[in-house]
Design goal:
Elements lengths: L7 E7 L2 E7 L2 H20 L10 H14 L4 H19 L9 H13 L5 H20 L27 H14 L1 H13 L3 H5 L6 E2 L4 E4 L2 E3 L4 E3 L8 E4 L2 H13 L20 H15 L8 H12 L4 H8 L4 H5 L6 H6 L10 H4 L3 H7 L1
Antiparallel strand pairs: 1-2, 3-4, 4-7, 5-6
Helix pairs in contact: 2-3, 4-5, 6-7, 6-10, 7-9, 7-11
Length: about 375
């Protein structure tokens, strides 16, 4: 009489990953499961045997160099290097990656906000950077876990954002920008009519402007840290923006007047054909706001102005995501609060009244109720 050999299968989920193993003997299966269960409890408690001897300082330096080689923006590199040097490395630099517990990181991040008086946004940037370091360390075998992954982000207040609420403010800004210079006037028209970033506008070349098809190609950025044009955008890909009537007329006149008409000539340039420094553009923007006697918003708030008026005019957030070049819908969702007047005006879309109750009940049911 033949008997089938038994298979004892056990599984356990550790840090979101499912582990499964089969055994011919039940005792072996139970023993394996208990060992994995202990390992899971240690990991969750932040107690784990150190497999790698790599310190945070040594790995983070290699990590920074790798990101620079892979095309990370110079400004982002400088910010991450500063966060490591000022905050993270003095606290944990000589510690082995796998030896730092979740509790230690949680206390450290909270201290950034409480003791050092850093903003929730700055705390979140530091948290995100360290989490990236751990994820890359796990991929390269320098760490076995990411202790940051279960630490929640700090709540950020939607402050510091502003925009011009009225079309009159926008019109005055453009009027005084025209008085400032032809270069800045064209920049202002591009910014307020497309919502493009400062670096994206300064990177534009004549070949990126297609007047016949009335569209603009956004695919590069003028990097402030290096004053060079980089073949990338913040959102990661290229996009095409339409040209409305006021912008079309301005671009057509500019192309007819300018002597810098080579396909690779910058659209925004000085009298010598050179791209202006972004700092110069920002200084001019502040001066124009003061002369126009309108609210002095940041130059990036022109982007918020475009987004706000786009939504108030009936544009959808999905369309806005494409126009602004956001990589995820969540990034665009934050612009919804810029249009409170528009949202308030939609109050009557859903309307209920007690008098509706009988009127909407089928006649047969009303007779039955009587």
């Amino acid at each position: 009489m033949s008997s089938k050999s038994e298979v004892h299968r056990r599984f356990i989920r550790i840090q979101g990953q499912r582990f499964t193993k089969s055994f011919s003997r039940k005792a072996d299966a139970d023993r394996w499961y208990q060992e994995q269960k202990i390992k899971k409890e240690k990991l969750e408690a932040g107690i784990v045997e150190v497999v790698s001897k790599v310190t945070l300082e040594s790995f983070s330096q290699d990590w920074l160099r790798t990101r620079a080689v892979n095309g990370q923006p110079k400004s982002s590199y400088q910010q991450e290097e500063a966060r490591l040097r000022l905050y993270v490395l003095p606290e944990f630099g000589n510690r082995i990656l796998d030896s730092i517990t979740t509790k230690e990181w949680d206390v450290f991040l909270n201290d950034l906000q409480i003791e050092r008086k850093l903003s929730p946004a700055t705390k979140n940037r530091a948290r995100s950077m360290v989490s990236k370091i751990y994820n890359d360390a796990i991929r390269m075998g320098a760490a076995t876990k990411n202790p940051i992954s279960i630490i929640p982000k700090a709540k950020e207040r939607q402050t510091g954002w502003d925009y011009w609420h009225s079309k009159e403010e926008c019109a005055r800004y453009l009027e005084f920008a025209k008085n400032e210079s032809e270069m800045f006037s064209l920049f202002a028209l591009l910014a307020i009519n497309t919502g493009a970033r400062v670096g994206e506008i300064l990177a534009l070349e004549q070949q990126d402007i297609n007047l016949e098809k009335r569209r603009i190609r956004i695919w590069r950025v003028f990097e402030q840290a290096t004053l060079t044009v980089q073949k990338r955008t913040k959102g990661g890909g290229e996009r095409w923006l339409g040209i409305n009537e006021p912008l079309f007329e301005a671009l057509k006149q500019h192309r007819a007047r300018t002597k810098f008409n080579h396909p690779t000539s910058p659209v925004i340039c000085d009298k010598l054909g050179n791209r202006p420094d972004p700092h110069r553009i920002r200084r001019t923007h502040r001066r124009v706001c003061r002369k126009a006697e309108i609210k002095e918003v940041r130059i990036h708030d022109i982007r918020h102005t475009f987004a706000s008026h786009f939504v108030m005019a009936g544009g959808s957030l999905a369309e806005l995501q494409g126009l602004l070049g956001h990589s995820t819908p969540m990034m665009t969702l934050k612009y919804a609060h810029l249009a409170p007047g528009y949202l308030e005006s939609r109050a009557s879309v859903v309307s209920f009244d007690s008098s509706d109750s009988v009127a909407r009940v089928p006649l047969a049911i009303v007779k039955t109720l009587k």
